[in-house]
Every structure is written in structure tokens, then in C-alpha cells.
Amino acid sequence: MRHDSEENCLACDLTSGVRPLPGGRVYETSAWVVEPCIGPLPVGTLIVKPFRHCLSISDLQPDEADQLGPLLSLTSHAITELTNCDQVYVCLWSHAEWTPSHIHFVLQPAWNSQQDAHERPGPFMQETMFRSGEPPNDDEVATFCERARALLSSIEEERK
Ligand SMILES: [Zn+2]
Q1: What mean pLDDT, rounded, does the chain reach?
Q2: CB under 8 Å to 152, separation ≥6 — which residues?
Q3: What is this structure's pTM?
Q4: Distance from the CA of 54 to the center of ligand 1, in angstroms?
Q5: 16 CA → ligand 1 middle, Å
Q6: Cα distance between residue 104 and residue 102, in whole Å
Q7: Is residue 82 scored above 80 in pLDDT?
Q8: Which CATH number goes with the domain that contains 36?
Q9: Domain range spanning residue 15?
Q10: Which residues are placed with Cβ below 5 angstroms of ligand 1, an ion?
Q11: CA 28 remoteness from chain centre
């Protein structure tokens, strides 16, 4: 089974406003949108996904593919600057309940100091966070998104 339709697509609903998105849209290009993550990952975690309901990286259109690398780099730069993290994890699964769904990269800040609370980094730490199921604080997400919007638009201005 594949989520071929935009109907009942969480990613589409969050972008269109059908479902509320705490913190709001952070950035966009003509093909991609950057939004805060609504799952139980640290404040500063952002989602990068195509506006178009697209289920696989292999289905990206040329303009979508062209914009992807620079946008992942730019967004990671902003996360690093604003959270003072040691690494930004960039991952894409989009296979909830074994069903291909609207692709979305998760860009998650990670700090070396997290080793005090987590035995292993990377997907192991993510798994622990998902198990805990604690969503990030809405106010903190909103504050981060405001700062991220300001930083990304100032970088955009500089590059003009
Ligand atoms: Zn969708």
C-alpha cells in the first residue's frame, strides 16, 4: 500500500493548514517547505519536505532535486547556529506502518553531551525519544521558529 493521495496525508495537512502547526512555517523555496517537527524530538528539529505530495526521492522532479542539497545545507546551518549543537542528523524514513508516505527529511540537532542520557547516538537515540513520546514544548518551538525564520531570511538577503 502507498499513500498515493493527498487526502489523509499528515504532511500535506500540516502545510495547507488543515491541521495546526505549532510554531508555523519556517522557510520555503518554490518546491520545498521547512516546518518544525511535531514529533517527540528536541526543540530545533525541523522538517524539510516537498510541497508536492511525493512518495520517493526517486520521483523528484529536476527542480525539486536541484533545490534539495542547498536547502538541506542551509537549514542545517541555521539549526547549528541557533542550537549550538555538535551535529545535525539528517534522515528520511517516510515509511510509517510500512507504508510509503509523503517524503520528509528530519533535521535534528544533536549534542555530544547527550551521551550522559543516551547509551548510543544516531537512530538509537531517536528511537529512545520516540518511545518516550514527549512532544516538544509549544512555546519553545514557537520561539525557535521565530529565530530560525529571521536567520534564514537574513542569509537569503545576504546571498542576493
Ligand atoms: Zn502529502
Answers
A1: 95
A2: 26, 27, 34, 74, 75, 78
A3: 0.95
A4: 7
A5: 10
A6: 6
A7: yes
A8: 3.30.428.10
A9: 10-154
A10: 6, 9, 11-12, 53, 102
A11: 12
